[in-house]
Every structure is written in structure tokens, then in C-alpha cells.
Design brief:
- The protein is mainly beta.
- The protein has a single domain, classed as M1 Pyruvate Kinase, Domain 3 (Beta Barrel).
- Helices cover 12% and strands 32% of the residues.
- The chain contains 4 helices and 13 strands.
- An 8-stranded mixed beta sheet has the order 2-1-6-5-11-8-7-13. It has a 3-stranded antiparallel beta sheet with strand order 4-3-12, with no helix packed on it.
- Strand 7 and strand 8 form a beta hairpin.
- The radius of gyration is 15 Å and the shape is globular.
- It starts with a strand and ends in a 12-residue tail after the last strand.
């Protein structure tokens, strides 16, 4: 079975969760049409407070649906869009992709993976104890972030649940994902 989009979500206001949609329109260089995080410069409130002129490397947030099953196994019921992602995927290990990976979403849209989502304490406001499930330390002391990846839109287009995802890796040497 190939990789695919299982859900798409957006919100025009700055809140934690996003509403499920039948489709999303991705706009090149901007992000998700009508989403509060759309734009060429940063839109996340904490980043705007630091420097509003920073480029927006967080235009489209993707999370793998397999994370929801992992969370359910430890008592956290999470549905697509509830962690603020725009695109929920299946069959692709987003967290192991290198920086610069291109994801072809559906027939036309292409996003470039820019880095890892670095969730904040708002995730515990949503469900207590959830933050330690999506950010923790390995047995070797490395910080593990599981709350998805961020991306920018290279080629716009309409995407829908059920659309295929094609992965195009960048040239080597690969750069591991870092929080953005």
C-alpha cells in the first residue's frame, strides 16, 4: 500500500486544533489558503513576537496518522486536525525524512519538508500528559520529537483525503530534520 493523505484540516484563526475539510488549496510560497498560518513570513505568534520578518518555514504542518494509534495505545484519543496539523498522512515515516524532501501531494501540489514541529505546552492544555508522549528523551539522552513535520509550498494545488503522496529525496548528503 502506498503513502496517502488521510485527512486535511485548516483554521482561519489562531487556535490549537484545526477543522477537517473536504479539500485544501495550497498556494505556492504561502501555505494553506485561508489558514491562520498562511504567509511568506512567520505567523506562529511566538515567532512573530521574536522577529516578524523571519521566513515562514511552517506553512503546512503534516502528521503521520500512525502517531494517533501510538497515542491511543497509551490512553490519548487524538483525531486528525486536533494537534493543529493541516495534512494527516498514512504509510510514510515523516520523521525519518531528510530536510529538503519534496512531497508530491495529489495530482499537482508539492511541499518541501523544512523541519520538525517543536510542540509547546499548549499540547498539554489540549490533553494533559500528551506533551511527554510527543517530545521525550531516548535512552541515550537525545530529544525525540514526534509531533510531525513542517513544510513550505513549492507548487500549489488542491489536495484531498485519499490523494497519493510521492516522496522525492534531496541530493545527498542528507541533512537530518531539526526543529523549525
Amino acid at each position: 500500500m502506498g503513502s496517502s493523505i488521510t485527512a486535511v484540516s485548516s483554521s482561519g484563526s489562531h487556535g490549537f486544533s484545526k477543522m477537517g475539510r473536504d479539500s485544501l488549496t495550497l498556494l505556492a510560497g504561502l501555505g494553506v489558503e485561508g489558514d491562520a498560518h498562511m504567509g511568506r513570513t512567520v505567523k506562529h505568534r511566538s515567532r512573530v513576537a521574536r522577529d516578524p520578518s523571519q521566513p515562514n518555514l511552517r506553512q503546512v504542518h503534516l502528521i503521520h496518522s500512525e502517531l494517533f494509534a501510538e497515542l491511543a495505545a497509551v490512553g490519548h484519543r487524538v483525531l486528525p486536525g486536533e494537534l493543529g496539523e493541516n495534512v494527516t498522512t498514512s504509510g510514510i515515516d515523516l520523521l525519518d525524512l531528510p530536510t529538503g524532501t519534496l512531497l508530491h501531494l495529489g495530482d499537482q501540489a508539492v511541499v518541501e519538508v523544512t523541519g520538525l514541529r517543536n510542540p509547546c505546552t499548549q499540547i498539554d492544555d489540549y490533553q494533559e500528559g500528551l506533551l511527554r508522549r510527543v517530545v521525550h528523551r531516548s535512552e541515550h539522552g537525545m530529544i525525540i520529537r514526534k509531533a510531525g513535520v513542517m513544510s513550505i509550498v513549492h507548487i500549489g494545488g488542491v489536495i484531498r483525503p485519499g490523494d497519493a503522496i510521492e516522496v522525492v529525496l534531496p541530493q545527498q548528503p542528507y541533512r537530518p530534520l531539526q526543529p523549525v
